[in-house]
Amino acid sequence: MTVRKLAVVSAGLSQPSSTRMLADHLSAATVSRLEEQGFEVEVTTIELRDVASDIMNNMLTGFPSPKLESVLEAVTGADGLIAVTPIFTTSYSGLFKSFFDVIDNQSLTDLPVVIGATAGTPRHSLALDYALRPLFTYLHAVVAPTGVFAATGDWGESADSVKTLPNRIGRAAGELAALMKDSDRSSQVRDPFGFDSVMSGVGGFQPS
Hints:
alpha/beta, 7 strands, oxidoreductase activity, FMN, flavoprotein, NAD(P)H-dep_FMN_reductase, oxidoreductase
């Protein structure tokens, strides 16, 4: 059976968090779509709060801890990515941005991504398109057309929320599964820190 690797990044700060809940729903729906097509799916779920100090130390020193290095390799070596952040002050969280800042900007090239966000009110939903989508476009990822935003009210029992949020999750999962189906990223060796590309331009050094 063909294997596809799915990385799930949640930048929620509380535990439990609506951010992690949205990430888990997107993950389960994507896995279901891929399994329906005969794929085996390996899922790695990453809570950024667990590596927050490692991310900051990496930004200060330029070197990742073994724990952060493992996380970065899981993301850059995946066939697909689900990235979900809470919205703070109209944009993604600082922790979310810092994590993607420490990844080499070529390491996510052609990586299929579904973006998601959570906030207290629906007025922050546009952050998907003016903040998250440009971030992953800059990183050369392939962003699925459907982004998923969940406000606090979307987790309630109203008729609208019961219908619309699952529909958005299902549509985004279907798009990500379709993009992951033909991926060969997990079979490639990638450097999440761009070391090879940097050193190749230093003194004529060529990595062996």
